[in-house]
Design brief:
With about 200 residues, this protein is mainly α. The protein contains nine helices and no strands. The protein has two domains: about 40 residues, no CATH class; about 110 residues, AhpD-like (Up-down Bundle), CATH 1.20.1290. About 60% of the residues lie in helices and about 0% in strands.
Length: about 200
């Protein structure tokens, strides 16, 4: 159960209604994630959804590259809804099932795509240490280019904010879906292993 009331489409204020409508139009589906809490502050929710729309429609990253970074973030923070939604999107984008499952279970992902492996390494270090080593940065820059490395950095930050909103307010899964991620301790972040680069 959520720690705060979650905004319902049946009980929106005049300030919330137009923002909700824009979010619903952008998503094409009911709200299931952090915006259910963020809508308590309509202006924040509106700016939030505008930024989310950028990565949905305008990012320079490919769909698979984008989902690698988001899955790293969701797994690091054990954000159940974030993982649930983006695991589905990763499959739809064509990301290797073995890579998805390895990230979910905390095993080294067996990448065969160099750019995806570099994004994983970059996002992993950023999440694990708050910094990116020079070799990892240089490899990512060479693999995906200047604009994409800026994009993926901001993407990791955005989905960290999503994870924090979900976790802090304990926003529940919908429709009694079981949590997809297991955790050794509810108060411990997941340690992400380095990727298996033997096949890259």
């Amino acid at each position: 159960m959520s720690r705060i009331p979650l905004v319902s489409p049946d009980d929106l204020s005049p300030q919330q209604r137009p923002v909700y409508d824009r979010i619903f139009h952008g998503l094409g589906s009911p709200l299931v994630g952090p915006l259910r809490a963020v809508l308590h502050i309509p202006e924040l929710a509106d700016r939030w959804q505008n930024l989310g729309q950028y990565w949905q429609h305008h990012t320079v990253l490919t769909p698979k590259q984008k989902e690698v970074a988001i899955l790293v973030t969701a797994r690091r923070w054990n954000a159940q809804i974030e993982w649930f939604q983006h695991e589905q999107r990763a499959h739809k984008a064509g990301l290797d099932k073995a890579v998805i499952e390895a990230i979910r279970t905390g095993h080294p992902p067996p990448f065969v795509d160099t750019a995806e492996q570099c994004i994983y390494a970059y996002a992993r270090e950023l999440q694990m240490h708050g910094q990116v080593s020079e070799p990892t940065y240089a490899a990512a820059l060479a693999a995906i280019g200047r604009d994409a490395i800026v994009d993926v950095t901001a993407l990791v930050g955005f989905y960290t904010m999503v994870a924090m909103m979900l976790n802090a307010h304990q926003i529940p899964m919908l429709d009694n879906e079981p949590p997809p991620l297991t955790m050794a301790d509810a108060n411990t972040l997941t340690t992400l292993p380095a990727a298996d680069v033997a096949n890259t």
